[in-house]
Amino acid sequence: MPRTVLHPHFPHLFSPLDLGFTQLKNRILMGSMHTGLEEMGPEGFERMAAYYAERARGGVGMIITGGTAPNRASELAATPYGPFDSEAQVPRHRQVTDAVHDADPACKICLQILHAGPLAHSEDPVAPSAIASPINPRVPRGMTEDDIEETLADFARCACLAQAAGYDGVEIIGSAGYLLSTFLLEKTNQRRDRWGGSYENRMRFPLAVVKRVREAVGDDFIVIYRIAAMEMMEDGSSWDEVVQLGKAVEAAGATIMSTHFVWHQAQVPTISTRVPRAAFASVTGRLRRELSIPLITSNRINMPDVAERVLADGLADITSMGRPMLADPEFARKADEGRADEINTCIACNQACLDHAFRGRIVSCLVNPRACHETELNYLPATTPRRIAVVGAGPAGLACAVTAAQRGHTVTLFEASGEIGGHFNLALRIPGKEEFAETIRYYRRMIELHGVDLRLNTTVAPDSLGDDWDEVVVATGVHARTPAIPGIDHPMVMGYREAILGTREVGRSVAIIGAGGIGFDVAELVSHAGPSAALDIDAFAREWGIDFAGHPRGGVAGVQPVVEKADREVFLLQRKPTKVGRGLAPTTGWTHKLALKRRGVHMLAGCEYLGIDDEGLTIRRDDEVQLLPVETVIVCAGQESTRDLYDALAAVRQGVHLIGGADLAVEIDAKRAIDQGCRLAAAF
After folding, report:
1. What single-letter DSSP state applies at residue 158?
2. Whole-angstrom Cα distance, residue 152 to residue 173?
3. Nearest residue to 261 (alpha-carbon basis) of 244, 283, 241
4. 178 belongs to the catalytic site
5. 653/472 Cα distance (integer angstroms)
6. Are residues 418 and 513 in the same domain?
7. Do 500 and 585 reside in the same domain of the chain?
8. In 583-643, where does DSSP find H-type helix?
């Protein structure tokens, strides 16, 4: 039933949206995210059904699925069933739609139709012109008139099949460097027929897709068009072109317009943790003033207060939150019930979601390992409650303690320091990683809610733990590795903890030994000046060369990045001869490297460390000895497991478990640590 009074906490977020022939119960959209389940066999649809149904029960107003190909040439990856192009596939999709509607009849679910165009991994990719994308080695074939007509028919057929399968609508993706968006830009559309040349001609194909789809499905079916509102490329669309296309798409029959802000090959971050919350909503707001249909905004909206503010400011009609629904499937329900402090917040790390997707792995979530694993990882009430001691309140220990307590076990959590969080307390101090504080906030609230007995400033020795435990979980984490370098005990040398916590002063010239994730974090910290761009949209726009107000072509044409940097010379060093930063995550690593490059950080590979003395750090590279005359050397040379307690306990008692970094010290892997902690707790 429609609300008769304003919501006490988020009146805009929980107001219904009338679409004429139907309504959305609230303004919370679970945006499209490819999960990898789409490429599985029959189990994939079963798992997708459970995954989406859990979000429907969690209170979202509408769900958009991961991208589905309308024909063979459009596939991003090979699937057992191929594209959605036949009635034989309708029952599989019906599993998903029935599960969602059974979970909540008021929740809408729309199929995203995605033609990858030049980004397709098919043997015969197509595009308006035979121009390869920088991120796909395959050169696409320029489409003929017959190809275009067949593709239009394929879009219409796919939409009809979606309707038959019980979807409430479809989303046509016209952005990101996929097929429709490549027709729009001169750099990718060099045709001289009616499908190329003038902008009116270049937008003819996307408009034809919308028209064909609307004609095929009738009036009472949701048709969403995802528009490239700002490509973040020099030769992207002008603002006038965006408006012209938006108005034409509206006239062609779209129900809703969804704004998108990047092509995949653009050199501007749009979804990582270094992007401010709701950074791009103003662009949506500007387009909203030009159109009469509802607009969706997205990107880095991860808490209900942020979404509410966007709506209250008139910047959008619907807020899209994809990754936040991975992190917490009950996001909407918790917000609705005034329990926003219980939301497990997406920290935009991308480590288990987008990084997995780009590597062809099943998507999940660093802070919620159940995401996309709902059929095999569940936290059921314990049949036999146990007394469990967890030693160490880093990510692994927190995940295990809270999950076990949630299941009904009696849990005591011991932590040697005065705060929970482990290495997350270091991460949140790095400019661009402030969101990590949300995970600590979440666990602090869960400890309170589920009655975990938290004992801070308590060091556990083998003989002090006692015997009154059914299970003992050791999550004592890692300690920094000290490399065997002559002079490593010199006063100019410090560990990364000291540098990050600021317990020692860092000099004006710095050598960082180790270029893994922590090395890059430390380099970010010591080379940074001014406000954190992750907390300030204006600072973010300056740092990455974006003009949100003037909206030049692609949002960036003619805008030079202005990078504030510390008055410090920084050397980032690694032993390996491979390119520095090669092992960083695919969706965020390039942003770290580019940011440091713009700050003038020297990144040196193939370093042999010969010694440290009053003159600085001496290294050998390419058989040449070189003195780096630095004032400070910061050691980020990896970690070693802290497992003395485990070894002592395991030798004398049963039921002792080892998790997290104490089990395996590979970098600092919070994704693995939280997953391991949750799975162990689920097994008790």
Report:
1. H
2. 14
3. 283
4. yes
5. 10
6. no
7. yes
8. 589-598
Site of tokens 């165009």: 117
Q: Per the domain annotation, does 549 fall within a domain?
A: no
Do 452 and 570 belong to one domain? no
Q: What are phi and psi of 316, to 5 degrees?
A: -165, 170
Q: How far apart are CA 160 and CA 215, in angstroms?
A: 10
Shared domain check, 327 and 305? yes
Structural domain contains residue 4 = no
Q: How far apart, in whole angstroms, are the C-alpha atoms of residue 520 and residue 512? A: 9
Place of tokens 């399968």: 165
Domain assignment of residue 405, yes or no: yes
Pair 143, 244 in one domain: yes
Domain identity same for 306 and 392: no
What is the CATH classification number for the domain harbouring 464?
Answer: 3.40.50.720
Burial of 633 (0-12, 13-18, 19+ CB in 10 A): buried
**pLDDT at 625 (0 to 100):** 97
- For the chain, the distance separating the N- and C-terminal CA atoms, rounded to the nearest angstrom, is 42
Burial of 340 (0-12, 13-18, 19+ CB in 10 A): middle
Catalytic residue among 178, 225, 443, 646: 178
Give CA–CA dist 97/118, Å, rounded: 30
Give pTM, 2 decimals: 0.96
119: nearest Cα among 62, 191, 173: 173
Tell how many helices (H) and how many strands (E) occur in the chain.
Answer: 21, 27
Task: Give strand pairing partners of 64.
Answer: 110
Q: How far apart are CA 8 and CA 10, in angstroms?
A: 6
Coil, helix or strand for 611?
A: strand
Examine the domain organization and report whether 413 and 474 are in the same domain: yes
Q: Which residues contact 313 (CB under 8 A, 6 or more apart)?
A: 281, 285
Q: Which two tokens stand for residue 395?
A: 């990510």
What is the residue range of 419's domain? Answer: 387-479+640-648+668-683
Give the CATH number of the domain where residue 491 resides: 3.50.50.60
Which of 585, 597, 434, 603 shows the shortest CA–CA distance to 514?
Answer: 603
DSSP assignment of 47-82 equals HHHHHHHHHHHTT-SEEEEEEE-SSGGG-SS--TT-
Q: What is the DSSP letter of 301?
A: -
Q: How many residues does the chain have?
A: 684
The domain tally of the chain equals: 3
| Rounded mean pLDDT for each run of 10 residues along the chain, 684 residues in total | 76 98 98 93 93 98 97 87 93 97 98 96 92 91 98 98 98 97 98 98 98 98 98 97 98 98 93 96 98 98 98 98 98 98 98 93 97 97 97 98 98 98 97 98 98 98 92 97 97 98 97 97 97 97 97 97 96 96 92 96 98 98 97 97 96 96 88 97 98
Burial of 591 (0-12, 13-18, 19+ CB in 10 A): buried
Residue 673 inside a domain? The answer is yes
Q: Residue 389 to residues 248, 392, 393: CA-CA distances in angstroms?
A: 63, 10, 11
Q: Are residue 448 and residue 523 in the same domain, yes or no?
A: no
- For residue 565, how many other CB atoms are within 10 A of its CB? 16
Strands annotated E in 158-221: 169-174
